[in-house]
Amino acid sequence: xxxxxxxxxxxxxxxxxxxxxxxxxxxxxxxxxxxxxxxxxxxxxxxxxxxxxxxxxxxxxxxxxxxxxxxxxxxxxxxxxxxxxxxxxxxxxxxxxxxxxxxxxxxxxxxxxxxxxxxxxxxxxxxxxxxxxxxxxxxxxxxxxxxxxxxxxxxxxxxxxxxxxxxxxxxxxxxxxxxxxxxxxxxxxxxxxxxxxxxxxxxxxxxxxxxxxxxxxxxxxxxxxxxxxxxxxxxxxxxxxxxxxxxxxxxxxxxxxxxxxxxxxxxxxxxx
Length: 272
Known about the structure:
Layout: H1 2-47, H2 53-73, H3 75-78, H4 80-99, H5 105-131, H6 136-169, H7 174-204, H8 213-234, H9 245-271
């Protein structure tokens, strides 16, 4: 009997260790996405006249290097194929970082956005590999983390980054109008998907979530909508803009941090 208990204990410990490694890997992918978004926005802000933003760009590049190194050290979690794809992304990132200050601002912005899109696609691949055989709860929670929340941060990151550059230049160009409106549509879509997913999880697995979750989701959505309205009223199609580009950028960062609170909430479920 003692031997059986010992074996079961070792098996349980092994499962917990595996879960922790999976979550840690997903969190490293998330860190890569968030740092790239900040690098992109800071670069656009700087290229449009905000010299102060350059310091933030270098800080985020350092964080990117650390996050990619973390992924490389954990390659056994997902295997060589996905590890190779992330390594390719890192090489592309380093090349873009070397050129970004010499590029046209919008070209630089779109190049970083292309990399983020690839990162989120890889994040979904990671989730499928790590949780395809897990419980329904773990599959749904990990999908919200790897897809729904990251896509929401990306919409917000683009609205933050482009908007801060517009504010730094003090005028909105015609091409930027189309992009800003498209980003708002992207946020609306990803927000609805995220909210619906979280409400459904709370309905089916409410004991695993904090009380008042739906109220927190509702407040968060209102905060995001306020940011969107602000962008429409103060930035889009406007000239002689008198908005502090750093303050606008930081407000967007606060909203992304808010989304990551829900990310961490779900990560805790996978770890427990």
